[in-house]
Amino acid sequence: MPTRLRQAGIVSRGVAAVIDLTVVGFALGALYVGLILLRLMFNPSTFSFPTLNAVFSTAAMFAVAVFYLTGCWAVSGCTAGAAVMGLRVTGRRGGRVAPVIAVLRAAACVLFPVGLLWAAVDVRRRSLQDIVFGSRVVYVKP
Hints:
This is RDD domain-containing protein. It is a multi-pass membrane protein. InterPro entries: Pra-immunoreactive (IPR051791), RDD (IPR010432). The chain crosses the membrane at residues 21-42, 54-85, 97-121. By secondary structure, the chain is mainly alpha-helical. The protein has one domain (10-139). 56% of the residues lie in helices and 6% in strands. It has five helices and two strands. The protein has helices at 10-42, 54-75, 80-85, 99-111, 128-133; strands spanning 87-90, 136-139. It has a two-stranded antiparallel ribbon with strand order 1-2. Helix 1 (10-42) packs across helix 2 and helix 2 runs antiparallel to helix 4 (99-111). The longest helix is centred in the first third of the chain and has 33 residues, at 10-42. The protein is elongated and about 65 Å long. The model has no long low-confidence stretch (mean pLDDT 91).
């Protein structure tokens, strides 16, 4: 059990979250371009850019963000932002996060991102999502 790994602080985690938000934004942009190309391919004579409403955009953002975070945390424990900042999300015992916990934690992080701010006041640098799901965000030693 790697208890000597240092818990990540609010600044490192915040920067990683901004990087991850950028990755999700690029993924959504790519999906939108794909939708445009599909419409152009199947209906070139009456092509018009698709108009997306707020409900669809919000649902797509939620789905892409949860899928991205879940996949990264369940497979390696590192998102792109975490890799840049040298962080890893681990379970209670220091191993990978279980897939079910990864899905629930990802949904909680997307729905309640303000929970990250709790890491600034918690003595053990845990966000509210870490407390609820028993995860830890630690610095990875080289």
